[in-house]
Amino acid sequence: MKYPNALHKFVRLGVLLAIGTTGLFTPLSQAQLVVDVTGAGSARLPIAIADFSGERVIGSALTSVVRADLERSGLFKLIDVPTPVGAGDTPPYADLKTRGADALLGGTVTASSDGRYETRLTLSDVPKQASIAAQTYGHTSAQLRATAHRISDFVYSKLTGEQGIFSTRIAYIVKLGGRYELQIADADGGNSQSALASNESIISPAWSPDGSKLAYVSFEAKKASDICARFGHRPTSCRGQFQGFKLCASLVSRWLATCGSAD
Q1: Cα separation of 118 and 139, whole Å?
Q2: Judgement on whether residues 51 and 136 belong to the same structural domain of the protein
Q3: How far apart are CA 110 and CA 64, in angstroms?
Q4: Of the candidates 80, 40, 65, 49, the residue with the CA atom closest to the CA atom of residue 160
Q5: Same domain for 51 and 138?
Q6: Does 87 share its domain with 174?
Q7: Which of 37, 44, 110, 254 is most deeply packed, by most CB within 10 A?
Q8: Tens digits of per-residue pLDDT, 114-164?
Q9: Which residues contact 20 (CB under 8 A, 6 or more apart)?
Q10: Which helix (H) or strand (E) holds 183?
Q11: d(CA 179, CA 2)
Q12: Structural domain tally of the chain?
């Protein structure tokens, strides 16, 4: 079961917040962004995400994120499952078919002696009453959201034939009082963390191709400076200093290329 053209049936949604002047920054308490995405409609794939067997608390934390990820994509319609379905269990195909499900994700979470967990998954085709794919992830309790996003990518890729983006991260800038923060979060906005805080403006964040570095423009030196931040390392200048306020789209490409080659 695959929807190979699924990504073309809904609007690709990308949000780029590029603020040209500090006067355009708006505090979070006053800002609202409402985006209506249409296009998937009746083409949504009905999928049942069952509660996982085994470690129920860990399983619940995983499935809640997976359900939200898939529903938010606009390509999936969630179908309720009344009972847990473990990896390798025989799914209740007749009941699922009555409920209108085309696919089912079941799983089992097992705790190990070293404090880690193993989550085994089975993705099934309900009409054909057959397994589509199986996968296993090892993780800690601190990696639940990251693991859940990887599960979402697994389901998404198997059912659409396209690579999922749930495990990616977003970077954005907020103004809190008189300070500016460059924040990084999961693709769904969760697990946000402050990567940089400054009393001076920060603008135009852009990721390097491999996702390990982030370029942005800082005004710490009272002029626009392009900065590369590699996670776990001290931020450094990408290459040059820009006199005054001269920003254009070509800078983003140069920042990314420079960051990709930085030590």
Answers
A1: 7
A2: yes
A3: 18
A4: 40
A5: yes
A6: no
A7: 44
A8: 999 999 999 999 999 999 999 999 999 999 999 999 999 999 999 999 999
A9: 203, 247
A10: strand 179-186
A11: 47
A12: 2
240-252 pLDDT, tens digit per residue, is 433 333 343 344 4
* Of 160, 188, 222, the domain-final residue: 160
197 beta partners: 181
Helix (H, G, I), strand (E, B) or coil at 110: strand
First-residue to last-residue Cα distance in the chain? 45
CATH code of the domain in which 116 resides:
3.40.50.10070
Together in a domain, 153 and 180: no
Q: Are residues 176 and 86 in the same domain?
A: no
Q: Which of 117, 146, 123 is nearest to 57 (CA)?
A: 117
| CA 1/CA 252 separation, integer angstroms | 39
Task: Answer yes or no: are the C-beta atoms of 54 and 108 closer than 8 Å.
Answer: yes
Residues 136, 212, single domain; the answer is no
Within 10 angstroms of residue 51's Cβ, the number of other Cβ atoms is 18
Domain residues for the domain of 138 are: 41-160
**56 with 125, same domain?**
yes
Amino acid 4: pLDDT: 46
Q: Is residue 225 part of a domain?
A: yes
Q: What is the pTM of this model?
A: 0.72
Quickly count: other Cβ atoms within 10 Å of residue 64's Cβ: 14
> Whose CA is closest to 51, among 36, 61, 43?
61
**To which residue do tokens 């776990």 refer?**
232
